Amino acid sequence: MQHDNHPGGSSLIGSDVTIKGDVVATADLRVDGRIEGDISCASLVQGESSAIVGTITTETARLAGAISGSISARELTVLRTARIEGDVQYDALTIEQGAQVEGRFSHRAPARPATEAASPPKTPGDDEPRLTLAS
Asked: pTM for the whole thing?
């Protein structure tokens, strides 16, 4: 039975699994174990007891465990149990109170097509970074 919109379904890395090497998934990925390598996937959900050492590149991420490495995500949610050491790039960001991040946050500027460069300026706030603080 399929639970998501990705044709490849979803993949689970259980709490008893350690992977040493890069992980590339075209589908959603749930990590409850340990990964020592870079991760590239459509969507990442990280469990509280999980540890990731490497760069994460994904469209959406919901992080709850330990991460040592940089993160690039369109939509990023950092839960209160997350412990991140590394720089974070995002389009939309939600951080729960209690989350710990050692690194820099930076909003990813969208690439503007050449035709858009000649268009009139946008009204203030159209492409402002969005930060949500969850309670």
From this structure: 0.76
